[in-house]
Amino acid sequence: MAGTATGAALLGVAAVVLSTGALSGVSAPHDPQTHTIQQDEIADGQILNVISLRLDEKGVLHAEERITFGGGGPEEFTRTFLLREPYDTDHDRLYGVSGLTAQGGDGRPVEVSLVEDDTAMAATLAVGGAEVVILDYRVDGTVSEVGDRLELEWTVVGGYSETVEETRVVVDAPDRPQALSCAAGEPRSSIYCTSSNMGGPEALVAHFMQADLEPGQTFDIVVSYPGQTAQSTLMLSRSWSLTSAFAITPVTAGVFGLLLVVLVGGLVLLIWVRDRDERALRSEARKADQAPVEAGVGGHLRFQPPDNVHPGQIGTLIDEQADVVDITATVVDLAVRGYLRIEELPHERRYSSADWLLTRTGQRGEETLLPYERLLLDALFPKGPQTRLSELGEDFSVQLADVREELYRDMVRLKWFARRPNRERSQWTTVGIVLTLLGGLVTVLLAIFTHAAFTGLALVIAGAAVTVGAQYMPAKTKLGSAVFAHVAGFRAYLLRARVDDIPAERRVHVFSRYLPYAIIFDNVEHWARILAAAGAEESPEQGLFWYRGPQDWTLGDFADSIKAFTLTLSGVISNTRQFRSLI
Question: Which of 53, 91, 256, 348 lies in the 20 to 30 Å Cα band around 44?
Answer without folding.
Answer: 53
